[in-house]
Amino acid sequence: MFGSRRLLSAALIAITTSVVVLSAAPVTIKLATLAPVNTTWHKALLDMGETWNKTTEGRVKLQVYAGGTQGDEASTLRMMRPGVETLQAGLYTSGGLALIDDAFNVMGMPFFFETDEEELAVQTKLTPVLEQRLNAKGFHLLNWGTGGWVQIFSKKPLKTLDDVKGSKLYTSKGDDKMVQWYTRNAFHPVALLPTEIPAQLKLSTGLIDTAPYPPYIALTLQVFRDAKYMLDARLAPLVGATIISNETWKKISPEDQAKVTTAALAMEARARAEGPKQDADSVTAMKARGLEVIVPDAKAAADFRSASAKLVASMRGDMVPADIYDMAVAARDAYRKTKGK
To answer: Are 111 and 303 in contact (CB under 8 A)?
Structure first.
């Protein structure tokens, strides 16, 4: 009997030890993003990964695949699905996130925001709801990301909203609802992969002659050399987020989850702080190399403002769920009231 107890005790110790070893096994997170290699966002992701590795003592590691090397956002999302899981995380634009849940379209509505502060007010208000919707689809929100304001780069001068509508405007391939929305509102969208934009702009008979970009990306990809005009219309802030699959998140201990989250939020703050200067410096650099910035005159600016309300309203219940849209409008307008608008 005594010998049996000793054997049982030894077995329990062995099992317990194996469980401890298993729970301490490193979690390697493979993350994909369209952010070009060596951009500030790519570097911020690498820095975040280094912080994860250091603060968790190697229990959480990050591998970053930048520049769309793993495919477009629709493809990489499929690679994160249960049963596939060749990727565990991604830094996505709001359009990519909308492929998971169309509520995320709310952060990319054209002409909806006027300032970074408005966008932040809406983001803060909607985050709990968007987190819940994302979690229900199998994903955990790590942080938000901002990439400056999207401007309109074109091969010929565009000065009015009608000019923009008459252009061959790039739209993200795979986002059929957005293509349909643009078409219904008298634009001429052309659906392409993001990686196809620079080559098409180089061609005299390219499929597109206009593409929306934050200035920093336009500079990084050198698209301004072919699309030599920038309409200063501040179409929308480029908003995105870093997400991780729930299955992978559960493999990380609560203690390490807290450390991972802290580093992710530090990356979020860094991106928001760097954005305005990054945009301004990029425009200055491109102007020195021949970019012509077109500032709408008073009439064109008024036309943009009056048309924007109708354009945005047409997204309610179609591109953006009605309840999410209404929450966003309420949060934005509440912020504007604090500024006397």
So the answer is: no
Per-residue pLDDT, averaged over 61-73, amounts to 95
Q: What is the pLDDT of residue 21?
A: 39
Contact 174, 192 (CB under 8 A): no
Beta bridge partners of 192: 172
- Both structure tokens of 258: 């807290």
Residue 12 has pLDDT above 60, yes or no: no
Which residue, among 208, 182, 181, 183, has the nearest Cα to 194 in the 3D structure?
208
pLDDT grade for 111, boundaries at 50, 70 and 90: confident
Identify the bridge partners of residue 62 per DSSP, sorted by sequence position.
Answer: 29
To the nearest 10 degrees (0 to 180), the angle between helices 254-287 and 40-55 is 160
Listing DSSP states for 24-79 in one string gives TS-EEEEEEESSPTTSHHHHHHHHHHHHHHHHTTTSEEEEEE-TTTT--HHHHHHH
Residue-range domains of the chain with CATH:
2-338 (3.40.190.170)
